[in-house]
Amino acid sequence: METLLFISSDPGVTRALVPVARQLNLKKYSIRVGGSEISDSIWQIETDFKFKYEKFEDDISEAKVKIFLRKALPDMLIVGAGLYNMIEHTFRRVGVDMGIYCFAMLDYWAGYRSRFQRIINDTCVMSLPDKIGIMDELCFNEMVDEAFDPDSMVIVGAPHLEESVKIVHSCSSIIKKKEIK
Questions:
Q1: Between these two residues, 12 and 149, which has the higher pLDDT value?
Q2: Could you tell me if 134 and 154 are in contact, meaning their C-beta atoms sit under 8 angstroms apart?
Q3: How confident is the model at residue 178, as a pLDDT?
Q4: 77: which of 84, 95, 135, 165 fits an S-S bond (Cβ 3.0–4.6 Å)?
């Protein structure tokens, strides 16, 4: 059984990753999850399946990530691409350097380059994954304009699509009861 390791910190991208983990769990992948304090409650509350969870500090060192990945032995990393954290960035960098296939998920149509770079010791450090899951063709074109490799991107659809469908569906009974004036 293949082991998939999800890493997230950003709340928006965590919510985008939860339905992905849910569907892959149904396909019998072994799911492990790691995140910072911010994403911890989202994973715990919004999932309906069992998984092993590891909590990390946002500023976890590359050395600690490497030790963890050597023990966890994931077949694939599925990592967020938030703007304001280090954990996602660090796991992408170390995972790719170790030869672990890395897929990153976007959840918003802005700040593309900033999601994959951090300033560390006055140096701009990139953390590009093997593939980037993006929302749509608009995002694709904007990222190509920012010099992202077109072959590194795959359109996966809008984040939270499944949740939006559930909400709209739950409203349908209310709509049926409402009188049209």
A1: 149
A2: yes
A3: 44
A4: 95
